[in-house]
Amino acid sequence: MTEWLENSLAVSISEMRELGMSSIADDLGRLLASGSLADIQLYRNTELAEAADAIDEICDAADFKVCLHQLAHTLGVDHMTVHCCSAKATTSFNTRVITTYPKSWVEEYVVRGFSNVDPILARAEGTPTGFYWDSLNFSFPLVAEFRQAAVAAGIGPSGYTLPVTFEDGIRLACTVSSSESPLMFRERFSKSEHDLRLLMESLGAAFFEIAGRVRVSNAVLDKAKFDVLLGLARGEPVEEMCALMDVDPKTMSALICDLYGAKTLFQALALSVRAGHLDEWPFGLDEIQH
Fold first, then answer.
1. Region 11-38: what's the mean pLDDT?
2. DSSP, res 263
3. What pLDDT was estimated at residue 290?
4. 73 phi and psi, to 5 degrees?
């Protein structure tokens, strides 16, 4: 049950009884006592509720970014990001981050390898609950260098990250950043934590749809594609396998990648294994002792 909604209802019930509206007060009292408020999808910020409607209209990554800009503005934060934060996601998404961060910072982050020292990313991978950045340890030299570079680029120093685990155990996170002091940001944004959790349900679903989520359950392998993936898993060269089949290796690789929505043949192999498409491998001579 959301604490703010429970408190608001309790006050309203009391005021209604004082005004002689006992019948309505009784109805609200039963609702409060039922414990069903946790199932109510209600934004505390009415402006945010209207902005959230745009999530249903997202068609591609560009739409997603525009929506993040609008939501960030409504939440009163400088930047907003939705990103993968689990190892499983590396083969499930072609796009792993959608953000409102400036291009200059994104390029610096990648070139300088900050993902290896980013404590925000590390915490998001290891915890199921939201956290404020001022709870992280930035004292290590490389981490302090990362933070200094981020602040210089207009990111932070304050922020909040909410990890959420979705289907197949894949974890996404929503991160917001602010130039406010940590104390001021905590005091103000704490009222928006509930709203961000509601947002992530819709944002996560949209991310799965438009960020390259590979739906492999309906992929059907014919014998040629199966043999290539099986041979690849066993360490056989793709060129040699395709030569035996009298097919062009580039064409075969492209067909398999298209089937799984993958960028590389090895990514397609990982997806096929995850989907269980290679679970029933036929016995090979090297696997039979006779």
1. 73
2. S
3. 47
4. -60, -45
Same domain, 126 and 151: yes
Let me know whether 58 and 115 are in one domain.
Answer: yes
CB 8 within 8 A of CB 15: no
3-class DSSP assignment, residue 232: helix
CA distances from 271 to 15, 241, 262, 263, 277 (A): 58, 20, 8, 11, 9
In tens, the pLDDT along 198-228 reads 899 889 888 887 775 445 556 678 888 988 9
Q: Check residue 1 and give its pLDDT.
A: 42
In a domain, 247, yes or no: yes
CB atoms within 10 A of CB 101: 19
Domain annotation covers residue 120:
yes
Q: For the residues of 143-195, what is the DSSP string, one character each?
A: HHHHHHHHHHTT--SEEEEEEEE-GGG-EEEEEEEESS-HHHHHHHHGGGHHH
Query: Which position has the token pair 């980013």?
Result: 118
Structural domain contains residue 217: no
Residue 42 tokens, joined: 């209600």
Average pLDDT over residues 130-137: 96
Residue 254, domain member (yes or no): yes
Q: Provide the token pair at 151.
A: 């602040």
In single-letter form, the type of residue at position 60 comes to: D
Taking only the tens place, the pLDDT of each residue in 87-132 is: 555 556 667 899 999 999 999 999 999 999 999 999 998 888 999 9
* Coil vs helix vs strand at 211: coil
Question: Does residue 206 sit in the same domain as residue 68?
Answer: yes
Q: Determine the length of the chain.
A: 290
What one-character DSSP code corresponds to residue 140?
Answer: S
pLDDT band with cut points at 50, 70 and 90 for residue 148: very high
Residues contacting 157, CB < 8 A, separation 6+: 133, 147, 150, 151, 179, 181, 182
Question: Across-strand partners of 164?
Answer: 172
